[in-house]
Amino acid sequence: MRQVFFSIIIVLMLAVLIFLVATLPTRIVKPKEQASFLTSSSQMDYANKLLSKGLKSEAAEAFEEYLASGKMQPQEEAKLLYKLGSVYMELYKYEKALKSFYKAEMLDPKAEFSGEMNQKIVEALENLGMSSQARYELEARTSLGGEKQAKGKVVARIGKREITDAEIDEALKNVPQWMRKSLEEPERRQEFIRNYVGQEVLYTKARRLGLDTKEETRKTLEQLKKQIVVEQFLGNQIQEKLDKISPEDIKLYYEAKKDSFTELAQIKVAFLSFENESQKDEMIQKLKEKEGKPQEASITEGDTSIAGIGEAKDIIASLFLKEKGQISDPLKIKDKFYVFSVIEKRQKRQKSFEEVKSEVEYEYKIKRQQEISQDLLKKALEEQEVEIFETTNKNETKKDN
What we know:
- With 401 residues, the chain is an alpha+beta fold.
- Helices cover 57% and strands 14% of the residues.
Protein backbone atom coordinates (compact mmCIF):
# COMPACT_ATOMS: atom_id res chain seq x y z
CA MET A 1 0.00 0.00 0.00
CA ARG A 2 2.79 2.31 0.94
CA GLN A 3 4.53 1.62 -2.36
CA VAL A 4 1.36 2.51 -4.26
CA PHE A 5 1.06 5.76 -2.30
CA PHE A 6 4.66 6.71 -3.05
CA SER A 7 4.15 5.83 -6.69
CA ILE A 8 1.16 8.17 -6.87
CA ILE A 9 3.16 10.95 -5.18
CA ILE A 10 6.02 10.51 -7.66
CA VAL A 11 3.62 10.61 -10.61
CA LEU A 12 2.02 13.79 -9.28
CA MET A 13 5.42 15.41 -8.77
CA LEU A 14 6.47 14.49 -12.28
CA ALA A 15 3.23 15.97 -13.63
CA VAL A 16 3.86 19.22 -11.74
CA LEU A 17 7.46 19.30 -12.98
CA ILE A 18 6.36 18.77 -16.59
CA PHE A 19 3.81 21.59 -16.20
CA LEU A 20 6.42 23.92 -14.78
CA VAL A 21 8.84 23.16 -17.59
CA ALA A 22 6.11 23.68 -20.19
CA THR A 23 5.18 27.07 -18.77
CA LEU A 24 8.77 28.17 -18.06
CA PRO A 25 9.09 30.75 -20.99
CA THR A 26 6.01 32.57 -19.77
CA ARG A 27 6.94 32.45 -16.12
CA ILE A 28 10.50 33.73 -16.55
CA VAL A 29 9.81 37.35 -17.54
CA LYS A 30 12.32 38.74 -20.04
CA PRO A 31 12.65 42.53 -19.87
CA LYS A 32 11.12 44.17 -22.95
CA GLU A 33 13.66 45.70 -25.34
CA GLN A 34 13.04 49.41 -25.53
CA ALA A 35 13.76 51.54 -28.56
CA SER A 36 15.26 54.07 -26.25
CA PHE A 37 15.86 54.61 -22.57
CA LEU A 38 13.89 57.86 -22.94
CA THR A 39 10.23 58.72 -23.37
CA SER A 40 9.12 59.99 -26.77
CA SER A 41 9.20 63.67 -25.78
CA SER A 42 12.53 63.23 -24.03
CA GLN A 43 13.93 61.45 -27.09
CA MET A 44 13.04 64.44 -29.27
CA ASP A 45 14.58 66.86 -26.76
CA TYR A 46 17.68 64.69 -26.67
CA ALA A 47 17.98 64.70 -30.48
CA ASN A 48 17.53 68.48 -30.64
CA LYS A 49 20.13 68.98 -27.93
CA LEU A 50 22.65 66.87 -29.86
CA LEU A 51 21.93 68.94 -32.94
CA SER A 52 22.37 72.23 -31.07
CA LYS A 53 25.77 71.01 -29.86
CA GLY A 54 26.90 70.32 -33.41
CA LEU A 55 26.72 66.53 -33.06
CA LYS A 56 24.87 66.09 -36.33
CA SER A 57 25.52 62.39 -36.93
CA GLU A 58 24.41 61.53 -33.40
CA ALA A 59 21.37 63.80 -33.73
CA ALA A 60 20.37 62.11 -36.99
CA GLU A 61 20.59 58.72 -35.28
CA ALA A 62 18.42 59.98 -32.40
CA PHE A 63 15.83 61.36 -34.86
CA GLU A 64 15.79 58.00 -36.65
CA GLU A 65 15.08 56.24 -33.33
CA TYR A 66 12.23 58.62 -32.62
CA LEU A 67 10.77 58.04 -36.09
CA ALA A 68 10.99 54.28 -35.52
CA SER A 69 8.54 54.59 -32.64
CA GLY A 70 5.81 55.33 -35.19
CA LYS A 71 3.73 57.41 -32.76
CA MET A 72 3.18 60.48 -34.93
CA GLN A 73 0.60 62.06 -37.16
CA PRO A 74 1.56 62.22 -40.88
CA GLN A 75 2.13 66.00 -40.80
CA GLU A 76 4.29 65.74 -37.69
CA GLU A 77 6.31 62.88 -39.19
CA ALA A 78 6.75 64.78 -42.47
CA LYS A 79 8.08 67.80 -40.59
CA LEU A 80 10.58 65.67 -38.69
CA LEU A 81 11.64 63.88 -41.89
CA TYR A 82 12.33 67.25 -43.51
CA LYS A 83 14.43 68.24 -40.52
CA LEU A 84 16.30 64.92 -40.66
CA GLY A 85 16.88 65.32 -44.40
CA SER A 86 18.31 68.79 -43.80
CA VAL A 87 20.72 67.34 -41.25
CA TYR A 88 21.83 64.70 -43.76
CA MET A 89 22.39 67.48 -46.32
CA GLU A 90 24.80 69.16 -43.90
CA LEU A 91 26.53 65.81 -43.44
CA TYR A 92 26.82 65.44 -47.25
CA LYS A 93 24.77 62.22 -47.06
CA TYR A 94 22.64 63.13 -50.04
CA GLU A 95 21.10 59.67 -50.60
CA LYS A 96 19.73 59.59 -47.05
CA ALA A 97 18.58 63.19 -47.40
CA LEU A 98 16.61 62.34 -50.54
CA LYS A 99 15.06 59.32 -48.83
CA SER A 100 13.80 61.54 -45.99
CA PHE A 101 12.61 64.32 -48.32
CA TYR A 102 10.67 62.02 -50.64
CA LYS A 103 8.93 60.31 -47.71
CA ALA A 104 8.08 63.69 -46.16
CA GLU A 105 6.62 64.79 -49.49
CA MET A 106 4.48 61.65 -49.64
CA LEU A 107 3.17 62.13 -46.09
CA ASP A 108 2.36 65.84 -46.48
CA PRO A 109 2.39 67.03 -50.13
CA LYS A 110 1.21 70.53 -49.19
CA ALA A 111 3.55 71.13 -46.26
CA GLU A 112 4.53 74.73 -45.56
CA PHE A 113 8.19 73.80 -46.03
CA SER A 114 7.62 72.29 -49.50
CA GLY A 115 9.29 75.18 -51.32
CA GLU A 116 12.51 74.92 -49.30
CA MET A 117 12.45 71.12 -49.52
CA ASN A 118 12.09 71.28 -53.32
CA GLN A 119 15.26 73.36 -53.49
CA LYS A 120 17.13 70.88 -51.31
CA ILE A 121 15.97 67.92 -53.41
CA VAL A 122 17.36 69.61 -56.52
CA GLU A 123 20.57 70.51 -54.67
CA ALA A 124 21.04 66.91 -53.46
CA LEU A 125 20.55 65.51 -56.98
CA GLU A 126 23.03 68.02 -58.39
CA ASN A 127 25.62 67.12 -55.74
CA LEU A 128 25.16 63.44 -56.56
CA GLY A 129 26.09 64.23 -60.17
CA MET A 130 22.54 63.67 -61.40
CA SER A 131 22.33 66.94 -63.33
CA SER A 132 19.69 65.75 -65.79
CA GLN A 133 17.42 64.59 -62.98
CA ALA A 134 18.13 67.84 -61.13
CA ARG A 135 17.05 69.88 -64.15
CA TYR A 136 13.89 67.79 -64.45
CA GLU A 137 13.10 68.27 -60.78
CA LEU A 138 13.78 72.00 -61.06
CA GLU A 139 11.38 72.36 -63.98
CA ALA A 140 8.75 70.23 -62.26
CA ARG A 141 8.99 71.83 -58.83
CA THR A 142 9.74 75.50 -59.45
CA SER A 143 8.82 78.19 -61.91
CA LEU A 144 12.45 78.73 -62.79
CA GLY A 145 12.57 76.14 -65.51
CA GLY A 146 8.94 76.28 -66.52
CA GLU A 147 7.89 77.39 -69.94
CA LYS A 148 6.82 80.99 -70.26
CA GLN A 149 4.10 82.10 -72.55
CA ALA A 150 5.75 83.67 -75.56
CA LYS A 151 5.34 87.43 -75.74
CA GLY A 152 7.16 88.11 -78.96
CA LYS A 153 10.06 86.87 -81.01
CA VAL A 154 12.10 84.10 -79.35
CA VAL A 155 15.74 85.20 -79.21
CA ALA A 156 17.17 82.33 -77.14
CA ARG A 157 16.22 79.04 -75.54
CA ILE A 158 17.47 77.40 -72.32
CA GLY A 159 16.17 73.84 -72.31
CA LYS A 160 12.40 74.22 -72.57
CA ARG A 161 12.44 77.85 -71.50
CA GLU A 162 12.10 80.46 -74.23
CA ILE A 163 13.59 83.92 -73.87
CA THR A 164 11.78 86.54 -75.91
CA ASP A 165 12.42 90.05 -77.11
CA ALA A 166 9.97 91.25 -74.48
CA GLU A 167 12.03 89.67 -71.68
CA ILE A 168 15.20 91.29 -73.03
CA ASP A 169 13.44 94.67 -73.23
CA GLU A 170 12.37 94.22 -69.61
CA ALA A 171 15.97 93.41 -68.60
CA LEU A 172 17.21 96.50 -70.44
CA LYS A 173 15.09 98.66 -68.16
CA ASN A 174 17.56 97.82 -65.39
CA VAL A 175 20.46 99.18 -67.44
CA PRO A 176 21.46 102.81 -66.70
CA GLN A 177 19.71 105.19 -69.05
CA TRP A 178 22.93 106.57 -70.50
CA MET A 179 23.93 103.04 -71.61
CA ARG A 180 20.63 102.06 -73.22
CA LYS A 181 21.16 104.15 -76.35
CA SER A 182 24.27 102.18 -77.35
CA LEU A 183 22.41 98.88 -76.80
CA GLU A 184 19.96 99.80 -79.53
CA GLU A 185 22.64 98.89 -82.07
CA PRO A 186 22.03 95.30 -83.33
CA GLU A 187 25.54 94.04 -82.49
CA ARG A 188 25.50 95.54 -78.98
CA ARG A 189 21.99 94.18 -78.33
CA GLN A 190 23.10 90.70 -79.45
CA GLU A 191 26.05 90.90 -77.08
CA PHE A 192 23.69 91.90 -74.26
CA ILE A 193 21.45 88.89 -75.06
CA ARG A 194 24.45 86.52 -74.90
CA ASN A 195 25.48 87.94 -71.53
CA TYR A 196 21.90 87.76 -70.25
CA VAL A 197 21.50 84.11 -71.29
CA GLY A 198 24.87 83.22 -69.75
CA GLN A 199 23.83 84.83 -66.49
CA GLU A 200 20.49 82.98 -66.47
CA VAL A 201 22.22 79.63 -67.10
CA LEU A 202 24.69 80.20 -64.25
CA TYR A 203 21.90 81.44 -61.97
CA THR A 204 19.85 78.30 -62.62
CA LYS A 205 22.90 76.15 -61.87
CA ALA A 206 23.47 78.07 -58.63
CA ARG A 207 19.80 77.61 -57.68
CA ARG A 208 20.12 73.87 -58.21
CA LEU A 209 23.05 73.89 -55.81
CA GLY A 210 20.97 75.81 -53.28
CA LEU A 211 23.34 78.78 -53.20
CA ASP A 212 20.44 81.23 -53.20
CA THR A 213 19.37 80.00 -49.74
CA LYS A 214 22.80 80.19 -48.11
CA GLU A 215 23.22 82.64 -45.25
CA GLU A 216 26.13 84.35 -47.02
CA THR A 217 23.96 84.90 -50.09
CA ARG A 218 21.17 86.42 -48.05
CA LYS A 219 23.61 88.80 -46.35
CA THR A 220 25.00 89.83 -49.72
CA LEU A 221 21.48 90.36 -51.08
CA GLU A 222 20.71 92.61 -48.13
CA GLN A 223 23.78 94.70 -48.92
CA LEU A 224 22.84 94.81 -52.61
CA LYS A 225 19.33 95.89 -51.64
CA LYS A 226 20.79 98.86 -49.76
CA GLN A 227 23.02 99.68 -52.70
CA ILE A 228 20.11 99.53 -55.17
CA VAL A 229 17.90 101.74 -53.00
CA VAL A 230 20.71 104.29 -52.61
CA GLU A 231 21.39 104.22 -56.36
CA GLN A 232 17.71 104.78 -57.10
CA PHE A 233 17.59 107.70 -54.68
CA LEU A 234 20.73 109.26 -56.15
CA GLY A 235 19.58 108.50 -59.69
CA ASN A 236 16.29 110.34 -59.19
CA GLN A 237 17.93 113.30 -57.48
CA ILE A 238 20.74 113.53 -60.01
CA GLN A 239 18.53 113.14 -63.07
CA GLU A 240 16.23 115.90 -61.83
CA LYS A 241 19.17 118.32 -61.69
CA LEU A 242 20.82 117.09 -64.90
CA ASP A 243 17.58 117.77 -66.77
CA LYS A 244 17.99 121.44 -65.85
CA ILE A 245 21.33 121.75 -67.67
CA SER A 246 20.98 124.24 -70.50
CA PRO A 247 22.90 124.53 -73.81
CA GLU A 248 24.50 127.68 -72.38
CA ASP A 249 25.92 125.67 -69.45
CA ILE A 250 27.56 123.25 -71.88
CA LYS A 251 28.96 126.08 -74.03
CA LEU A 252 30.43 127.80 -70.96
CA TYR A 253 32.08 124.52 -69.91
CA TYR A 254 33.60 124.19 -73.39
CA GLU A 255 35.05 127.71 -73.21
CA ALA A 256 36.52 127.02 -69.77
CA LYS A 257 38.09 123.71 -70.88
CA LYS A 258 38.89 124.69 -74.45
CA ASP A 259 42.49 123.49 -74.29
CA SER A 260 41.39 119.92 -73.59
CA PHE A 261 39.29 119.79 -76.76
CA THR A 262 42.08 119.93 -79.31
CA GLU A 263 43.36 117.73 -82.07
CA LEU A 264 46.99 117.00 -81.28
CA ALA A 265 49.73 117.44 -83.83
CA GLN A 266 50.57 114.29 -85.75
CA ILE A 267 53.20 113.21 -88.23
CA LYS A 268 53.62 110.19 -90.44
CA VAL A 269 57.19 109.09 -91.07
CA ALA A 270 59.02 106.59 -93.25
CA PHE A 271 62.34 105.25 -91.98
CA LEU A 272 65.21 102.92 -92.74
CA SER A 273 67.63 101.35 -90.28
CA PHE A 274 71.31 100.46 -90.76
CA GLU A 275 74.24 99.21 -88.72
CA ASN A 276 77.12 101.56 -89.67
CA GLU A 277 77.05 105.34 -89.84
CA SER A 278 79.07 105.13 -93.08
CA GLN A 279 75.88 103.89 -94.80
CA LYS A 280 74.00 107.14 -94.10
CA ASP A 281 74.31 108.70 -97.58
CA GLU A 282 73.17 105.48 -99.23
CA MET A 283 70.17 105.18 -96.89
CA ILE A 284 69.17 108.84 -97.29
CA GLN A 285 69.21 108.39 -101.05
CA LYS A 286 67.09 105.24 -100.80
CA LEU A 287 64.62 107.08 -98.58
CA LYS A 288 64.37 109.93 -101.09
CA GLU A 289 63.70 107.49 -103.92
CA LYS A 290 61.42 105.34 -101.74
CA GLU A 291 63.64 102.31 -102.16
CA GLY A 292 64.80 99.72 -99.65
CA LYS A 293 61.26 99.03 -98.40
CA PRO A 294 61.11 101.73 -95.71
CA GLN A 295 58.80 101.20 -92.75
CA GLU A 296 56.08 103.70 -91.91
CA ALA A 297 54.72 104.88 -88.55
CA SER A 298 52.25 107.49 -87.31
CA ILE A 299 53.32 109.53 -84.28
CA THR A 300 51.03 111.75 -82.20
CA GLU A 301 52.31 114.64 -80.11
CA GLY A 302 53.07 113.31 -76.65
CA ASP A 303 54.00 109.80 -77.79
CA THR A 304 57.24 108.41 -76.37
CA SER A 305 57.74 105.43 -78.68
CA ILE A 306 57.69 104.63 -82.39
CA ALA A 307 56.02 101.50 -83.80
CA GLY A 308 58.69 99.10 -85.02
CA ILE A 309 61.44 100.82 -83.03
CA GLY A 310 60.38 101.28 -79.42
CA GLU A 311 61.21 103.99 -76.88
CA ALA A 312 62.46 107.16 -78.61
CA LYS A 313 61.16 110.20 -76.70
CA ASP A 314 63.97 112.63 -77.65
CA ILE A 315 63.98 111.49 -81.29
CA ILE A 316 60.22 112.12 -81.57
CA ALA A 317 60.63 115.70 -80.31
CA SER A 318 63.20 116.42 -83.04
CA LEU A 319 61.02 114.85 -85.77
CA PHE A 320 58.13 117.22 -84.95
CA LEU A 321 60.48 120.12 -85.79
CA LYS A 322 60.81 118.84 -89.37
CA GLU A 323 58.52 119.94 -92.18
CA LYS A 324 56.75 117.66 -94.59
CA GLY A 325 59.23 116.15 -97.08
CA GLN A 326 62.32 116.76 -94.93
CA ILE A 327 64.72 113.95 -94.09
CA SER A 328 66.52 113.73 -90.76
CA ASP A 329 70.20 113.22 -90.14
CA PRO A 330 71.16 109.71 -88.98
CA LEU A 331 69.80 109.19 -85.49
CA LYS A 332 71.07 106.46 -83.19
CA ILE A 333 68.51 104.50 -81.20
CA LYS A 334 69.99 101.74 -79.06
CA ASP A 335 72.45 99.87 -81.29
CA LYS A 336 71.16 101.01 -84.71
CA PHE A 337 71.07 104.12 -86.88
CA TYR A 338 67.88 105.46 -88.45
CA VAL A 339 66.99 108.06 -91.05
CA PHE A 340 63.45 109.46 -91.12
CA SER A 341 61.41 111.17 -93.79
CA VAL A 342 58.32 113.18 -92.79
CA ILE A 343 55.68 112.18 -95.36
CA GLU A 344 52.65 113.77 -93.65
CA LYS A 345 52.28 116.47 -91.01
CA ARG A 346 49.22 117.84 -89.23
CA GLN A 347 49.46 120.79 -86.87
CA LYS A 348 47.74 120.98 -83.50
CA ARG A 349 44.22 122.27 -84.01
CA GLN A 350 41.51 123.63 -81.77
CA LYS A 351 38.25 121.69 -82.27
CA SER A 352 35.15 123.80 -82.67
CA PHE A 353 32.25 123.54 -80.23
CA GLU A 354 30.05 121.94 -82.88
CA GLU A 355 32.63 119.21 -83.50
CA VAL A 356 32.83 118.17 -79.87
CA LYS A 357 29.40 119.17 -78.58
CA SER A 358 28.40 115.59 -77.61
CA GLU A 359 31.75 114.93 -75.95
CA VAL A 360 31.57 118.20 -74.00
CA GLU A 361 28.00 117.49 -72.87
CA TYR A 362 28.92 113.99 -71.66
CA GLU A 363 31.98 115.23 -69.76
CA TYR A 364 30.07 118.10 -68.18
CA LYS A 365 27.22 115.83 -67.05
CA ILE A 366 29.69 113.39 -65.46
CA LYS A 367 31.28 116.30 -63.59
CA ARG A 368 27.89 117.58 -62.41
CA GLN A 369 26.84 114.06 -61.40
CA GLN A 370 29.85 113.79 -59.09
CA GLU A 371 29.23 117.25 -57.63
CA ILE A 372 25.52 116.54 -57.01
CA SER A 373 26.32 113.18 -55.35
CA GLN A 374 28.86 114.78 -53.01
CA ASP A 375 26.46 117.61 -52.16
CA LEU A 376 23.61 115.18 -51.39
CA LEU A 377 25.86 113.10 -49.13
CA LYS A 378 27.15 116.18 -47.32
CA LYS A 379 23.62 117.42 -46.62
CA ALA A 380 22.46 113.97 -45.46
CA LEU A 381 25.40 113.73 -43.04
CA GLU A 382 24.63 117.18 -41.63
CA GLU A 383 20.90 116.44 -41.25
CA GLN A 384 21.54 113.28 -39.21
CA GLU A 385 24.39 114.72 -37.12
CA VAL A 386 26.83 112.01 -38.15
CA GLU A 387 30.18 111.68 -36.41
CA ILE A 388 32.87 109.33 -37.70
CA PHE A 389 35.66 108.35 -35.34
CA GLU A 390 39.07 107.42 -36.62
CA THR A 391 40.59 104.47 -34.79
CA THR A 392 44.26 105.06 -34.01
CA ASN A 393 44.78 101.96 -31.87
CA LYS A 394 42.77 99.37 -29.98
CA ASN A 395 42.10 101.63 -26.97
CA GLU A 396 42.04 105.11 -28.48
CA THR A 397 39.78 106.85 -30.98
CA LYS A 398 39.67 110.40 -32.23
CA LYS A 399 37.02 112.33 -34.10
CA ASP A 400 37.41 112.36 -37.86
CA ASN A 401 36.89 115.90 -39.10
